[in-house]
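[step 3/7] fold_predict: job queued, chain A
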Amino acid sequence: MSFTQEQTILSKIRERGYWRVVIRPTSFEEKHIPEYSELFRIVERNAVRLRVLGYPHIDYKAQPERGKDWVGQEFQWEDELEVWRFYQSGQFVHYFAIAEEWRDESSLRPPGQGWASGQHMYYISTVYSFVEIYEFAARIALSPAGGVIMHVEIELGNLRGRRLIPETIHYPLGGEYRITLPTWNHVWEGAQTELIASPRELAALAVRELFARFGFDLGIDILKKLQGGIGR
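[step 4/7] structure written:
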């Protein structure tokens, strides 16, 4: 895949609702991971597999793209779009589309009547994504990419006007919750040991912070109960 092609995928992701994730040590060292050949293996070994597509998705049908000091992949299948890169400095950068934002490009799950992008944020899928991000961050912290102090940054873009909705009737919200912010940013910095020990607790705090911007006050105990059924 050429740089131009990757920019096209990235630009497409950013046209609609998207996630941007950065995971890295706070101290910069150009060759924090001395062996370039280890980069792809570190991501592959530590990918989190809680759903059909892992986090990040490893596409074994395509060779990874390789730059001077990074490896990465882009992936587009049906309504799933993502681009990730992992650098020798230990920095991981990942863009992916908000769930079901590209249903108009899906043949397996075509959009129903009245569907439009930019309308919704799916409640349970969002909880899953935070768990996946923080569990992957914890694994990266434990790998050769880790540092004494770690940085986790999450940006959600093109949010304004979205409504938080359940995927099924089994998880009703009991109200209408919308966000007026165009973008939401979350940054956590802390000890490597804390990230390794408590990824789900950190994920619960982050998702609660996001949901509050929709006007939805969800208790930590309820979030932990929801997390309890994920991947266990």
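[step 5/7] annotate
The radius of gyration is 18 Å.
The mean pLDDT is 92.
exit 0
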